[in-house]
Amino acid sequence: MCIRDRYFVISVLGVLIFVGLTAYDTNTGEVIGIQAKAVLLATTGHQGIWSSPSDGAGLGSALVASASLALTGMENNPTHPVTVRGTDLNITLDVLGSGGRVRKSSGEDVEPSEVGDDDCVLDLRSLESDAKTWFSNTHTRIKDRTGLDMSRDVIPITTSIATTTGGAPVDEHGRETFSKGKKWATGLYAAGRSANNGMHGQGMLAGNLILDDLVGGGNAGNHAGTWAKEASFGGSNLVEKAITNSSKRLESLKSGEGVSVGQASATLASVMSSCMNGSSDKSSLIAAADAIAEIKKNGIKVTDQSSVMNTEMCSALKLQGMITIAEQITKYRGVSMSEEPTIFTRIINGELPCNKVYEDDLIIAFLDIQPLTRGHTLVIPKEPAPSIDQLSSDSAAALGRALPVVSLSLIHI
Questions:
Q1: Cβ atoms within 10 Å of 164's Cβ, excluding its own
Q2: Against a cut of 0.85, is the pTM above it?
Q3: Which of 35, 59, 217, 322 could join 43 in a cystine, given CB atoms 3.0 to 4.6 angstroms apart?
Q4: Residue 62 DSSP label
């Protein structure tokens, strides 16, 4: 059964064996329960975590996480470098091959990868004549959203997370898996932006995204349909209990204490700005996790007390799911950086021996055990980080100070 427009799904029912869902009926204000032989989640990505629920709440992933199942691929959040500032309008990079230019406000040309918080613009005023027809829809969309005419005006741009690729881990049939893919949750499927099948890495190609959606969605739908023919309905006792729990959740949003949906959404977006690609140092993750815990503690308050067509209630439910996803993002990235100590961590901790050349509070340097030349030395920051550009400013500065000291000491080796 496809749930759209009138119904907002609140929960999936089951623990490893899934038998249905509960949903908020916006026409009546009631919570309904639906028994199902198979549940297929295929919703938008969770990119709205960095902006607002309307940009993508990741409902499918949130339902999986709320069912106490782990999400995967959450460490990668592909960014789009040409987003019209103040909107969710992403401009295709194809315009740059047809005369478009990315520039600073000073007029200096820059690469798309250099777009960030700086004042950058997209200049399409010199678009090739034969390309103007091809990009006429882009012209219309920019005009409608901003009032700017790309043939005469430069377009303020920034980077954004336009879509996401992490979600419920699935096998080739679209079944939600756990225990590192060795087992699957019976009756629960995911596809598209609700799923993570390992196809995408830190970057993302638009063609691969479409291919993933089409092939993954087809595989999940076919397998779910085949499974449903042979399966039986079950868990009727779970449905009534879930309806009661979901109804209490709605009432708590109306009667409880908390901040507005808009305020909580803005706070979450600000917090999660530290967890985009390239911003994953441990201190940022800890700070983000603490801030998310504080958002949950403060709660969300729905001011619209009506039961019928309560769009604020739907936004609040979306936001609760986004907070759940955000928790997994910070947890996942923190664990991926620290759960398995590297050989360097073990050397730093004194668990493995080394021929030490230099050490201070932030840096250690020692001779390589397989030197490429005499005096070959490794200079290692003690702070764990995926790459040198993701070190904290203190560790980066300490690394710079240590290099000449280490070089001088090697003269005597």
A1: 28
A2: no
A3: 59
A4: H
